[in-house]
Design goal:
The chain is mostly beta strands. Helices cover about 0% and strands about 55% of the residues. Strands 2, 4, 5, 6, 9, 10 and 11 form a seven-stranded mixed beta sheet that branches.
Length: about 120
C-alpha cells in the first residue's frame, strides 16, 4: 500500500489550502486515515483522525478551521484548511495503520503560511 499526497504550497495568513491523499495497492484494510504535521524543530503531531465510520477527531489547535473528510471510495482523505496561521506552517503527512502492513506514511507535503 502506498500513500500519495498532493496539495499544499505557500499562502498568506488567513488564506486557505487543501490537501488530498490517496491510497493505492493492496486491499485497503484500515480503520481510519489520518493527517499529521511536523513543524521545523518540533515533533510530529496529529491533526485529524478520519475513521471509516463515526466522528472525525481534530487537534484543538485546528478545530473550527480545518475540515477533514474521506472520499466516496474511502481510499482518499482530504484536509481543507481555512483561516491559516503562521504556526500551521509544517510538512503535512497522511497516515494509515493498515491491519496487515502496519503504519504507513505518505511522502509529506509542505504547507507554508506567511505572516
Amino acid at each position: 500500500v502506498q500513500l500519495q499526497a498532493s496539495g499544499g504550497g505557500l499562502v498568506q495568513a488567513g488564506g486557505s489550502l487543501s490537501l488530498s491523499c490517496t491510497a493505492s495497492g493492496s486491499p485497503f484494510h484500515v480503520n481510519s486515515m489520518d493527517w499529521y504535521r511536523q513543524a521545523p524543530g518540533k515533533e510530529r503531531e496529529l491533526v485529524a483522525i478520519v475513521p471509516n465510520r463515526g466522528r472525525i477527531k481534530y487537534a484543538d489547535s485546528v478545530k473550527g478551521r480545518f475540515t477533514a473528510s474521506r472520499g466516496n471510495a474511502k481510499n482518499t482523505v482530504y484536509l481543507q484548511m481555512n483561516s491559516l496561521k503562521f504556526e500551521d506552517t509544517a510538512v503535512y503527512y497522511c497516515h494509515i495503520d493498515h491491519l496487515t502492513f502496519g503504519h504507513i506514511w505518505g511522502q509529506g507535503t509542505q504547507v507554508t503560511v506567511s505572516s
